[in-house]
Amino acid sequence: MTLINAADHKWDAKLAPKSLPDGEYLVFVAEAFPDHSKSGTPFVEVTFTVHDPASPAKGRSLRFNRFWLSEKAIPRFVRFLRACGSTAVFDAQDRKAVEEALLDRIVRITVKTTSEEYKGERRDKTEAAFFAPPTKSDVARLREEYGETMLPPLDGEESGSGFDDDDVTPF
Predict the structure, then answer these.
(1) Does any domain span residue 164?
(2) What is the domain-level CATH number for residue 25?
(3) pTM of the prediction?
(4) Does any domain span residue 153?
(5) How confident is the prediction along the chain (171 residues), in pLDDT tens digits per residue?
(6) Cα 129 to the chain's mean position, in Å?
(7) Which of 37, 41, 110, 151 is the most buried (most CB within 10 A)?
(8) CA dihedral defined by 134, 137, 139, 145, rounded to 10 degrees?
(9) Sign of dihedral through CA atoms 164, 131, 94, 89?
(10) What residue numbers bound the domain in which 68 lies?
């Protein structure tokens, strides 16, 4: 027999939403891969995770951010790439190339929730609405928390610091 008491508040922390509330966050690109919609439009899907030691949202993620690869939508993807310092030329429909260009990049995002109508139903859509490079104080906090060798290159640095295949990620 499994007794469940919904009035028991010991479960409250686990019931809290895992997504990020509206606001500004320093995040790592935790996952990035190409895909396409049912109609065939290609996109890159990204998951952001907060690893900022100063953030009360540390450990939370924002999933399912899509960067559409249509001619009209590509400028948004380019703004994101520039903000996270990814300057490599890559095939956005090649999984390995997308991962190499984006995984573990650090970027500051603004999370915004909007309400939209989809197939006659209203639903909330939470996504990263603005992208900016990390500030100098962001970089200092991350270096203090994770150390020089555990961070991807920042501020135009060449390799020398950053992740290596044998490194264990700090998060």
Answers:
(1) no
(2) 2.40.50
(3) 0.76
(4) no
(5) 777 777 776 665 555 555 688 999 999 999 999 999 999 999 999 999 998 888 888 888 898 899 999 999 999 999 999 999 988 899 999 999 999 999 989 999 999 988 888 888 888 888 898 999 999 888 888 888 887 766 665 655 544 334 444 444 444
(6) 12
(7) 151
(8) -130
(9) negative
(10) 18-148
